[in-house]
Amino acid sequence: MIDTLFNAGQGLMGGIWPGTVWPVIWTLIKIVCVVAPLMGCVAYLTLWERKAIGFTQIRLGPNRVGPFGLLQPIADALKLLTKEIIIPTAASKGLFVLGPIMTIMPALVAWVVIPFGPDVALANINAGLLFLMAVTSLEVYGVIIAGWASNSKYAFLGAMRASAQMVSYEIAMGFCLVVVLMVSASLNMTDIVMSQAKGMGVGYGMNFLSWNWLPLLPIFVVYFISGLAETNRHPFDVVEGESEIVAGHMVEYSGMSFAMFFLAEYANMWLVAILAVILFLGGWLPPFEFLSFIPGWIWLGAKTFVVVTMFLWVRATFPRFRYDQIMRLGWKIFIPVTLVWLVVVGAWMQTSYNIWN
């Protein structure tokens, strides 16, 4: 269908513009079709978080702006857009402005290779997983730049803590992705999903038993918890430790520049969640064969929503960790566990009991 639309547009525009113009316009249309809904999901995830935590604590949450509080994210956006952006006198102005951009840019660029169905992606490249790892690792630079450019001790301490934490858990997440790469034999995101569409469970109509979460359960758990730490979410949110460093690397920011850090955080939550679904939970595949009449994008969205809600559930349940506990968990537990399981899966694949053939 997408190819048909592209060819129709090419034929329509061919007589107006040179043939090289339409592919650029088509790419921009696809970018808008991905980014616009993503920004809407980011905005309303803030409302869902406040509602979900309110439900956990037996209270209502936001309910004043619009019916059931549904216009609260729009009110928050308008408030932040109209607030003054203050740049400290002693700050490095160029880098101070660059910090929020460097933080949100990787969170959006990574969606280029996310498939929403078989071969339905902005760029269905063969090295999609490698591209995603490379782009998301750039986010730590935005945090460091923001903390250093603020010329504030609190901001700099927060940036150092954030960067150390993000790098530590990025290693564990990287090993998790390597294990998935081994069993899928591909770096292409669509191929990784389709490799979960075969196996014993599929033969019995119980597709969810053939997804990667079951044989790679320890890796799935490590990935999910590392995702919490990588996105600086509770109980790993010492980056914004109010009782110690006020608000971390973003303490000197205001208005929309301040909001960009939170946009990046919530966009990363959606990204980590949809990656968990694609890598471990069958992507757009239905859990049971008799439910295959439901479109795949609905399954992808429903699974992603459940995983994101688990992020909020964790925040409402667990107390904040100390920084030394966070670093110990990353370096002394998660990295050894992923390395051991990588070896175990590699040995498993060499035996006659290999389930990924």
TrEMBL record:
Main location: membrane
InterPro entries recorded: NADH_UbQ_OxRdtase_su1/FPO, NADH_UbQ_OxRdtase_su1_CS
GO CC, alphabetical: plasma membrane
Enzyme Commission number(s) from the entry: 7.1.1.-
Catalytic reaction equation(s): a quinone + NADH + 5 H(+)(in) = a quinol + NAD(+) + 4 H(+)(out)
Superkingdom of this protein's organism: Bacteria
Principal EC category: translocase
Protein topology in the membrane: Multi-pass membrane protein
Keyword Signal carried by entry: no
A biological process from GO: aerobic respiration
Sequence intervals crossing the membrane: 20-47, 95-117, 129-150, 171-190, 210-229, 266-285, 297-317, 329-349
Subcellular location(s) of the protein: Cell membrane; Membrane
PROSITE patterns: COMPLEX1_ND1_1, COMPLEX1_ND1_2
GO molecular function: NADH dehydrogenase activity; oxidoreductase activity, acting on NAD(P)H, quinone or similar compound as acceptor; quinone binding
Biological role: NDH-1 shuttles electrons from NADH, via FMN and iron-sulfur (Fe-S) centers, to quinones in the respiratory chain. The immediate electron acceptor for the enzyme in this species is believed to be ubiquinone. Couples the redox reaction to proton translocation (for every two electrons transferred, four hydrogen ions are translocated across the cytoplasmic membrane), and thus conserves the redox energy in a proton gradient. This subunit may bind ubiquinone.
SUBUNIT field: NDH-1 is composed of 14 different subunits. Subunits NuoA, H, J, K, L, M, N constitute the membrane sector of the complex.
Protein's recorded name: NADH-quinone oxidoreductase subunit H
Organism: Polaromonas eurypsychrophila
